[in-house]
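thought: user wants a sequence for this fold. calling inverse folding tool.
action: design(structure=
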């Protein structure tokens, strides 16, 4: 692929801008402040929080992985759209609770909640492992995406290894220089480029490739089986995948964003806007995959190169498309880097704050822990770049692997926030068995009924927790009186909403349709696919309704601390917002 000088100039200017933002973040930050470096002094406002959540969630998986996935499985890749809506749904179950308790307790990291809530080093270690490994996989996946895109653009002149090294160094620089503040600002830039690039891509597909209707006709002639209703196993896998994405907010770097938010209102506004982004962030990369499916014949192992192949073909259409492709490629690079930097920041936080500061070398200066964190970022990036070029997995497999492990930490957070009478013992037992099943199924590479390993692991995890909780005592004491917080107006309490959204998630899958049947095409999609998108839109609308009307924010300015002088526990009572 001859990308010419123009793309290199645009990418060079873009990368220099990111480094400049890193320098700016360094200049305006509070020097040697852990709170400023890792949480931007809890000052992420509406636009910044939305963009950093968008840019962190819609990443190299979307721009590189989804086109490859679409090439392999055709219109079944529409599972990504309700799946991305499920991510927003997951925000409603956790974000307000964690923000409120984090505000009260002044947490710097999500693991500080686990430590404070359960007072168990064993549980802290287990949650830490299940948080760290997914982050390492997360960064590895972004390094692989960076390598794939650079190797594809240069027809192998720049290898995947050196491509990931070059972009990784820039990412490391602005993360080290400005911390969360620089990452948040770059996410605004990267998220804006990503959104605009996806819109331009959709317009270009209509103008140059005849739109989705013409593309679908070519696919029906070439590979009709990829347009049919998926078989039962694939439909079950679809539901399993969407269920997994509900737990996307339990990624360490996403939990960090909740703690870094300026207010609960900021989180609510971000969730409302995010709930409608899947229809750009999902359909645009699916369109790339469909174009690639209609034009090219490559092996499944090479399918992650589809993005680069389509961009190469589009670039050959004329001078105007050359610059359009340059912008789209820049948006892909932005998507990848915006996710990778969040992963690096998360690992840096885990190493410097959760490990070194809390356990190994206590009572050192903030500067010392910051240096440790920056060194760990460098080491982790180096390891992940090497793994990205050694481990042969496609991007969707990497996503399934990391989500399977992340799911196992969910009970610790959910029950810790919701059930004051539960202690660490049931959580430890459940997590150990959940990890055994998850790792076991991953190692033997088995997906019973097409269901991901993490789903079975979580099911056993929860069952063990219930059994131990019920068995250890008929009367449960309140193990965490000082962790109580106001739950006024939290979305998780709206039972009818969760029942209705669960139904919508099921209806958004084709599991109720006859496998192998062929539907008429409407607007370039088979009827079963269009129904999936339609039910997803209803789900997004419902999320918006609940967030705006029923999610009542807590006014922490009115909070007062009540100290029980007869005990070592302090209960914080919050007055309800007026």
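)
observation: tool returned 578 residues.
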């Amino acid at each position: 692929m001859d990308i010419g000088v123009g793309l290199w100039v645009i990418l060079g200017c873009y990368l220099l801008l990111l480094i400049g933002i890193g320098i700016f973040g360094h200049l305006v930050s509070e020097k040697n402040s852990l709170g400023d470096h890792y949480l931007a002094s809890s000052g992420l406002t509406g636009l910044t929080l939305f963009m950093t959540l968008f840019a962190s969630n819609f990443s190299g998986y979307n721009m590189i992985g989804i086109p490859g996935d679409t090439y392999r499985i055709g219109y079944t890749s529409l599972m990504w759209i309700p799946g991305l809506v499920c991510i927003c749904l997951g925000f409603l179950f956790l974000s307000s609770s964690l923000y409120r308790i984090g505000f009260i307790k002044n947490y710097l990291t999500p693991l500080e909640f686990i430590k404070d809530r359960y007072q168990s080093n064993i549980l802290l270690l287990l949650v830490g492992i299940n948080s760290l490994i997914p982050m390492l996989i997360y960064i590895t996946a972004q390094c692989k995406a960076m390598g794939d895109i650079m190797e594809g653009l240069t027809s192998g002149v720049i290898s995947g290894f050196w491509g990931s090294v070059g972009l990784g160094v820039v990412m490391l620089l602005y993360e080290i220089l400005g911390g969360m503040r620089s990452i948040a600002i770059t996410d605004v830039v990267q998220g804006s480029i990503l959104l605009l690039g996806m819109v331009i891509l959709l317009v270009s597909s209509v103008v140059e490739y005849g739109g989705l209707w013409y593309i679908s006709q070519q696919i029906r002639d070439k590979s009709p089986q990829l347009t049919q209703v998926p078989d039962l196993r694939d439909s079950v896998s679809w539901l399993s995948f969407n269920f997994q994405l509900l737990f996307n907010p339990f990624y360490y770097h996403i939990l960090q964003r909740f703690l870094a938010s300026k207010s609960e209102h900021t989180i609510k506004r971000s969730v409302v806007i995010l709930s409608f982004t899947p229809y750009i962030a999902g359909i645009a990369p699916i369109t790339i995959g469909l174009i690639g499916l209609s034009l090219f014949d490559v092996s499944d192992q090479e399918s992650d190169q589809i993005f680069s192949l389509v961009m190469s073909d589009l670039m050959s259409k004329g001078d105007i498309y050359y610059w359009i492709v340059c912008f789209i490629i820049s948006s892909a690079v932005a998507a990848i880097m915006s996710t990778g930097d969040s992963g690096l920041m998360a690992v840096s936080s885990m190493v410097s704050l959760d490990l070194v500061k809390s356990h190994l070398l206590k009572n050192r200066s903030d500067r010392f822990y910051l240096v440790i964190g920056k060194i760990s970022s460098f080491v982790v990036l180096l390891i992940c770049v090497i793994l990205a070029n050694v481990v042969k997995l496609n991007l969707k497999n990497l996503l399934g692997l990391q989500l399977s492990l992340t799911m196992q930490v969910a009970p610790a957070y959910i029950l810790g926030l919701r059930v004051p009478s539960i202690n660490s013992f049931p959580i430890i037992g459940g997590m150990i068995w959940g990890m055994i099943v998850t790792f076991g199924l991953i190692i033997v590479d088995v997906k019973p009924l097409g269901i991901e390993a993490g789903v079975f692991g979580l099911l056993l995890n929860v069952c063990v927790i219930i059994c131990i909780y019920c068995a250890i005592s008929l009367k449960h004491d309140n193990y965490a009186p000082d962790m109580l917080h106001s739950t006024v107006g939290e979305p998780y309490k709206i039972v009818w909403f969760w029942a209705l959204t669960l139904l919508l998630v099921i209806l958004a899958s084709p599991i109720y349709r006859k496998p192998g049947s062929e539907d008429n095409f409407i607007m370039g999609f088979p009827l079963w696919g269009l129904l999936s998108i339609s039910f997803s839109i209803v789900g997004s609308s419902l999320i918006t309704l609940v967030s705006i009307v029923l999610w009542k924010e807590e006014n922490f300015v009115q909070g007062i601390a009540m100290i029980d002088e007869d005990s070592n526990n302090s209960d914080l009572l919050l007055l309800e917002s007026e």
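thought: summarizing for user.
answer: Here is the designed sequence. The longest strand covers residues 560-563.
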